[in-house]
Amino acid sequence: GQWCTRVPLICFGTVEWHLPDRCLRQFGREQCIPLVVPESQRAFHGRDGRQGTRDWPTKLKEFIAIWENRQLQDIVTPNQVGRMGYHDPYLDRYRQTSVRYMTPEGAADGALADGVERIKEITTGRNDLGNEDVGFIRRIANSLLGCIRAQGRDHRRYPPRAAPPPPPVQLDVPAPPPPYE
């Protein structure tokens, strides 16, 4: 479909890039490492026309040529099956280049998930764990419990409570019109 075409969208002197390779997971596709937008192609991003660009077809001929050959710009990846692995190349790059946590709660959730993943990675298929490994695993587990406590969550299970009843539904039904005589 056209949604997976990586092209510049042109409106007179303004160029905005449509970059589907940055959000393929939203569409159920396998996420690849996004391509870099060349610096020369960022020059017209967000222009509002007040700069006096009247000859935009000439100035934007490079972008127009890309648009005219848009069928060559499709991002084709297979459908995503299951979850991405912790060491998927995209996720490794994401952890190196992105701000992962916006809130303390998000950081605690992320540290918890990373810690559990690390414990799984260390212990999978291992029957030869020594005291040093056990101590390391114990430190990771304590760190995870600290994350849970920092969020005010208790790791013990309690019986579920019943949900509160929904508010009563009030319908304002108009009175029927009087019959005609």
From TrEMBL:
InterPro entries reported in the protein's UniProt record: AminoTfrase-like_pln_mobile, MAIN-like
Any single biological process term in GO: meristem maintenance
Stretches with biased composition (Pro residues): 161-181
Domain Aminotransferase-like plant mobile: 3-94
Pfam families: PMD
UniProt region (Disordered), positions on chain: 155-181
Name of protein: Aminotransferase-like plant mobile domain-containing protein
